[in-house]
Design goal:
heterodimer; A: alpha/beta; 4-stranded antiparallel sheet; 7 helices; 32% helix; B: MetI-like fold; 21 helices; globular
Chain lengths: 232, 523
């Protein structure tokens, strides 16, 4: 369970305030106009940004002062999730050992994770030999071998085509139910969300102005700002 | 379009004239190419350039890394800005500073004597050449490598923090890949600059065994009138320079001339005690390499016999000639450069001929391969039968300086000019804007800054250059750098200090004139 209580973060002239609870194993989708603070919300949970006030808890433990690597979190960015000069195997292996000292069982775990994301046999390739979707699958495979129960997605599928995007979201949903991940996902493409379960939150000017089941958020918005954003 | 081709023809024509001159004047003497003398010169040139490159780049790596890691210490921004300064300090003034610090009665030996120690550093020879080359090239290399660090995507730093990479991991996975890409071109560029170094080696070499190819060509033409030897040496030099450039593929297209100070990335590996000490040492070292000579120039110049030095009319005549030379050759270089850039961007954007555009850019940079000294030797031979070369020396110096500045102008202006063209050409075409209208209404406002910067660099380079003028200069055509060289040669070091400071101040003034005054947009 992720809890943000009384979190305040100031960036230049904008003051952001978040109070949020995400149930264990659930999926929360974050939508809202650009500049609303969606990425900042993820950066605060992941520990890349430090709040000026408030606490970030995961499963009851206080994360506020922990560095990113010490949090049970994997975050996927829109781009540059892989190191271009390392093979797929090494890029995934970094999730097991940050110096790439890998044992036989580790190698097996990497192969298994790659197979799970549909990239069996890709271990020897390098990022430039992969399509955009395949690269993000490698990043997902890394999140599998890390065994960190929270997955934060900062628009990692934004550059993919509609079919690719839908299949990636399907993969994330499978991983959530199989591996028990808790997922927070930022997206702009609300069309993809109609088949997604869970909750959606709507951000505007650095605060959460609406919080509802995803389907309701998209079809029967609880707040006029959401309707305006969706163009309903 | 036509102007760019004309400009390229002028550049290629002046180079062809030189080659023709060398060929006609000397004939082909194959036995001159391989001999004890030429091989000795080549060996020394490779040795000093290789060592200068290793020292400059080797020291620049920790310095650039430390500057990239420590983003908050006081003085960081001015220090990074000052890294560009040696580019506009005339080579001879750098020599002067090295002598003032390391020479027999310099700072170091006086300090050592005060402590009762004996020093035995002889700056005349390889040691002095290396010290001067490190002063000029280490800050330059640091700046180039700093840009490599700035090119690391922010996500990689966040990834490193998330994966818990420590110092070794950060270096191996995040930093080394970009460093490995930047190192070859930085090393090759520094090697070439030192391989073709003239004024520094002439002033500090102390004689034939310590001569680079450039200095040997100069001596062969000016003193021995041995043109066969000059041709052989020139051919060797062009071959090596071309081999380095071709072997490298191509040097990076964007020269590190802009001043980039980037938003600091949060790094996971900054807390270690040894890291702090190492970074502190590296930053201190680059600051010392850069600032101590600059301070020596300023202090010795101000404490020297100012009134005596400034009372000589020869000084003011030389300064006036240098000023005219600088202003004129910079204007010509900018005009030629703009003509070339305007054509090559049309080739690249409108006509989709990137190779032809690349060829044009390469033609404008040919002086990097065929150094000005070789050019001058050729012109000398070609023109000697028809006119008194020494009387027209300044004209040849002007042409040489235009060619020296041209690659800088093209590199500084091309990115902005191409971007402006990409954004505006369809609109401008549809509105029927062409020729001068387009230049005045679209290009000049957009390109004011890079053009001003290019003018400043070109003028400062021309003002401080001791190259071709050493070949053709007489008492009637003396420039300020040549005047300074003669003061140093006569061991009038007090006066030389004053003139050196004057030279630096003038170069900085010309640079600021271009960069600040011309480059500043009128609001």
């Amino acid at each position: 369970m992720i809890q943000l209580s009384g979190v305040r973060y100031r960036y230049e002239t904008m003051v952001m305030a978040y109070d949020l609870t995400v149930e264990r194993g659930s999926l929360v989708t974050v939508i809202g106009p650009s500049g609303a603070g969606k990425s900042t919300l993820l950066n605060l949970i992941a520990g890349f940004d430090r709040p000026q006030a408030g606490r970030v808890l995961i499963d009851g433990q206080d994360m506020t002062d922990r560095r990113p690597a010490a949090r049970p979190i994997t975050m996927l960015f829109q781009d540059h999730n892989l190191f271009g000069h390392l093979t797929v195997r090494q890029n995934v292996g970094l999730g097991i050992h940050p110096g790439l000292r890998l044992t036989r069982p580790d190698e097996a775990a990497i192969e298994e994770a790659l197979a799970r994301v549909g990239l069996a046999g890709f271990a020897g390739r390098r990022p430039w030999q992969l399509s955009g979707g395949e690269r993000q699958r490698v990043a997902l495979a890394r999140s599998l071998v890390r065994h960190r129960p929270v997955l934060l997605l900062d628009e990692p599928f934004a550059a993919l085509g509609p079919a690719q995007r839908r299949s990636m979201i399907g993969l994330v949903e499978d991983l959530r139910t199989d591996a028990g991940f808790t997922v927070v996902m930022v997206t702009h493409q609300t069309d993809d969300l109609h088949r997604v379960s869970g909750r959606a939150i709507f951000l505007e000017d650095g605060s959460i102005v609406a919080d509802a089941p995803t389907r309701q958020m998209l079809t029967n918005p609880p707040h006029p700002a959401v309707a305006a954003y969706l163009g309903l | 379009m036509i102007w760019g081709w004309l400009a390229a023809a002028v550049v290629l024509g002046s180079i062809a004239a030189s080659v023709a001159g060398l060929w006609l004047g000397a004939g082909f003497q194959p036995d001159r190419f391989v001999g004890g003398y030429t091989l000795g010169i080549l060996g020394f040139t490779v040795l000093e350039a290789g060592l200068s490159m290793l020292l400059s780049v080797g020291l620049a790596i920790p310095a650039a890394r430390a500057l990239a890691r420590r983003t908050r210490f006081p003085g960081r921004v001015p220090l990074i800005a000052l890294l560009a300064l040696p580019m506009v300090v005339p080579p001879l003034v750098g020599v002067l500073a090295i002598v003032q610090i390391w020479g027999r009665s310099g700072l170091v030996s006086r300090a050592a004597q005060a402590l009762g120690l004996e020093t035995s550093i002889n700056v005349y020879g390889l040691t002095g050449i290396l010290l001067a080359h490190v002063f000029f090239n280490m800050p330059f290399a640091t700046r180039m490598l700093l840009q490599a660090w700035a090119s690391i995507p922010g996500e990689h730093w966040r990834l490193a923090r998330q994966l818990g990479l420590g110092g070794p991991g950060v270096f191996r996975f995040v930093e080394w890949p970009v460093l490995r890409r930047a190192l070859p071109s930085a090393a090759a560029l520094v090697f070439l600059l030192c391989f073709t170094s003239f004024a520094i080696v002439l002033a500090l070499g102390g004689g034939p065994p310590n001569a680079t190819l450039e200095v040997a060509i100069f001596q062969a033409v000016r003193f021995d009138l041995d043109f066969g030897l000059a041709l052989a040496l020139a051919a060797i030099q062009v071959t090596v320079c071309a081999a380095v450039l071709i072997g490298l593929g191509r040097l990076q297209r964007t020269a590190p001339l802009g001043l980039g100070i980037d938003p600091p990335a949060v790094r996971p590996d900054l807390d270690g005690r040894w890291g702090r000490i190492g970074d502190g040492a590296a930053i201190t070292l680059v600051a010392a390499v850069l600032l101590v000579p600059l301070a020596a120039i300023a202090v010795d110049g101000l404490l020297g016999p100012v009134a005596e030095a400034l009372s000589r009319s020869a000084l003011w005549w030389a300064a006036a000639r240098s000023l005219a030379l600088a202003v004129g050759s910079a204007a010509l270089a900018v005009a030629l450069g703009l003509a070339i850039v305007s054509t090559l961007r049309e080739l690249r954007v409108r006509h989709g001929r990137p190779r032809l555009a690349g060829g044009m850019e390469a033609a404008s940079s040919l002086v990097l391969v065929v150094p000005p000294f070789v050019l001058a030797a050729g012109w000398f031979l070609l023109l000697r039968p028809v006119l008194d070369v020494f009387a027209y020396g300044l004209g040849l110096v002007l042409v040489a300086n235009v060619l020296i500045s041209l690659p800088f102008v093209v590199r500084v202006v091309t990115p902005a000019a191409t971007m402006t063209f990409e954004r505006t050409w369809r609109l401008a075409d549809s509105l029927g804007m062409a020729g001068w209208r387009r230049v005045c209404l679209i290009d000049l406002p957009a390109l004011r800054r890079p053009v001003g910067l290019a003018y400043g660099i070109a003028a400062a380079l021309a003002f401080g250059d001791l190259g071709v003028i050493a070949m053709f200069g007489t008492n009637d055509t003396q420039t300020l750098p040549l005047y300074l060289y003669q003061l140093i040669g006569a061991y009038r070091m007090g006066e030389a200090s004053v003139v050196g400071l004057l030279l630096v101040v003038c170069c900085l003034g010309l640079f600021a004139l271009g960069d600040r005054v011309m480059g500043r947009a009128r609001a």
